[in-house]
Amino acid sequence: MKVLVVDDDVVSRMVLMHLIDGCGKFEIAEAEDGADAWEQLEAGLRPAICFCDLRMPRLSGMELLQRVKSHPELSGLPFVLVSSATDKETVQQATLAGAAGYIVKPFQSDQVRVHLSAFLDQAAQGYQHRAEEPADTQLRLGISADRLLVYLAGFQNQITAAGNELQALLARGEQQEARARIDRLHAGCVTLGLTGAAAVLHDSQLHNDSVQAALSDVIRAVIQQSSLVRQAA
After folding, report:
1. What separation in angstroms does the CA of 121 have from each of 116, 118, 148, 214, 230?
2. What are the pLDDT digits (tens) for 100-114?
3. Is the pTM of this model over 0.70?
4. Is the C or the N end of the chain the one with fewer CB within 10 Å?
């Protein structure tokens, strides 16, 4: 599986490549900015997934994403934007532009791993996607496909942030607060029709390994559901 990493910051690029390499046997291609990446893609590079920094000179991550999605041979490429920005407007813009995911710096290995595993054979990863049909979710909530994608992207960021927060709560022995936080995330899964993820959260034990594994499954479910929404659009 070939992975393209695009970042004008050498240190960030190397860290991300190291995390990807630690997730399995991947062939990693790198680009120093969006323009370099586009040149490689035009020359025939066909990665299975792309991790791309948002803010870069010459050609930004958003601009590269737009070019990729308008290219007949590249439009299906899963494109994960990477940034230190967490504002809702940026996340919404990335989602509507067709981003498959959004990772916030500083990198966490679990964030990277879940994006890679989501695009591998799910059966080999021991993951089975169980969720409401996206059209049924849209009808139930009275929203469009674009709005559902925005909700899913926001929930993914919420889950990502919850990982460190829950780890800290459990380390301090604040079990009741940790359970309350998990229950709120469970409610989000139910609202968005992520039935399998909701069950995983409900059944998770209050120790860090179980909680982090559950959160990874939720993120995987969000990514897969977002992909299904785009396919149906």
Report:
1. 10, 8, 25, 19, 19
2. 778 877 777 777 877
3. no
4. C
